[in-house]
Fold:
Amino acid sequence: MCPRTDTLIDIRPIIPNDRKPLKRILEDTQVFTSAEIAVALELIDAALADPPSTDYVVQTAADGEDVLGYYCIGPTPLTISTYDLYWIAVKPSAHHRGIGRQLLEHAEQTVRARGGNLLIAETSSQPKYEHTRNFYLKTNYKELAR
Structure:
């Protein structure tokens, strides 16, 4: 449970019933293109596969049955301790409640637990990503390039 939000949330491994609400979240953010959503769903499907992918870790934030968001991370190929934050998204109606921050902190903890020491979050310089860039800056990420 993550008590620092105004909603007690549980961050847990993805389950098959999460796919449909996560697809809706990706669409409802109105940030991702249809091609980006397709890639995000491929990674979700890889995490749900039997056996699951060892390349991607997908965790879901939920309040009971209500899926509020998720993140997807994975080791950066050809590195020893670097990870990429491939996706992080929160249901628009749940924005500004600390859920994104909790997901990001959980991702960072997961990276550390797996022996990682660097988490890279790439985003676009397009205007529609301004809130995303501000989110990373507020959570102590440094902009290294634009």
Summary: The CA atoms of residues 24 and 91 lie 8 Å apart. The longest helix spans residues 34-48.
